[in-house]
Design goal:
Order of helices and strands of chain A: EEEEEEEEEEEE
Low-confidence stretches of chain B: none
Distance between the termini of chain B: 37 Å
Shape of chain B: globular
Low-confidence stretches of chain A: none
Number of strands of chain B: 11
Number of helices of chain B: 0
Shape of chain A: globular
Structural class of chain B: mainly beta
Largest sheet of chain B: 7 strands, mixed
Mean pLDDT of chain A: 91
Oligomer: heterodimer
Largest sheet of chain A: 6 strands, mixed
Helix content of chain A: under 10%
Strand content of chain A: over 45%
Radius of gyration of chain A: 14 Å
Distance between the termini of chain A: 41 Å
Chain lengths: 114, 116
């Protein structure tokens, strides 16, 4: 069975500082991994995805994530935080083609300090 | 190309009433997933449907909840005799059908159900 753990339900960083949001997964097969962002009272927007191609994945808004099989991790980073990055971030995993249901982590709320 | 549409965006029901949530997938998409987000929690998978078929309902509560995706029209998530614990945001996602490759899901804006 697949599962996702996001360490840190709340993360605060200063504007211009590095953003690091942690995600570890458990999967019995090579996984597909995703990061989504959710702004207040809105739906989910895909930031980036790993689908077994390059292990370093670049997404929108300057975010990137690296798939590390040995550490079962898929941490999200951004070199320089912007005020507009304040939102909830969800890591998700899917295991199969044909039934791509997603298992989500509990989310990390990112606050940007001016 | 319009995105995934959900309506209503907000729904208020009293305990014991029925709630009907609608999801229109993106044009050309024939797969629909429903997820529920309880307050302060992540999204949890409920059901996966293709046109006229339920493929995976392993996340659906055993009672009061049902889903359909008819040949024509939107997908419907139906909750009978709602209780306060049903208050949540319900998200729909759709995906295309591409045999052999991963089918990305596109999410709608959600329906926020409040049970009084």
């Amino acid at each position: 069975a697949q599962s996702v753990t996001q360490l840190g339900s709340h993360v605060s960083v200063s504007e211009g500082a590095l953003v690091l949001l942690r995600c570890n997964y458990s999967s019995s097969v090579p996984p597909y991994l995703f990061w989504y962002v959710q702004y207040p009272n809105q739906g989910l927007q895909l930031l980036l995805k790993y689908t077994s191609a390059a292990t370093l994945v670049k997404g929108i808004n300057g975010f990137e994530a690296e798939f590390k099989k040995s550490e079962t991790s898929f941490h999200l980073t951004k070199p320089s935080a912007h005020m507009s990055d304040a939102a909830e971030y969800f890591c998700a995993v899917s295991e199969s083609v044909g039934n791509e249901k997603l298992t989500f982590g509990t989310g990390t709320r990112l606050t940007i300090i001016p | 190309n319009a995105g995934v549409m959900q309506n209503p965006r907000h729904l208020v029901r009293r305990r014991g009433q029925e709630a009907r949530l609608r999801c229109s997938p993106m044009k050309g998409h024939s797969h629909v997933y429903w997820y529920r987000q309880l307050p302060e929690e992540g999204l949890k998978f409920m059901v996966y449907l293709q046109k006229e078929n339920i493929i995976d309902e392993s996340g659906m509560p055993k009672e009061r909840f049902s889903a359909e995706f008819p040949k024509e029209g939107p997908s419907i998530l139906r909750i009978q005799q709602v209780v306060r614990g049903d208050s949540a945001a319900y998200f729909c996602a759709s995906s295309p059908t591409r045999g052999g490759s991963y089918n990305e899901q596109f999410f709608g804006p959600g329906t926020r159900l409040t049970v009084l």
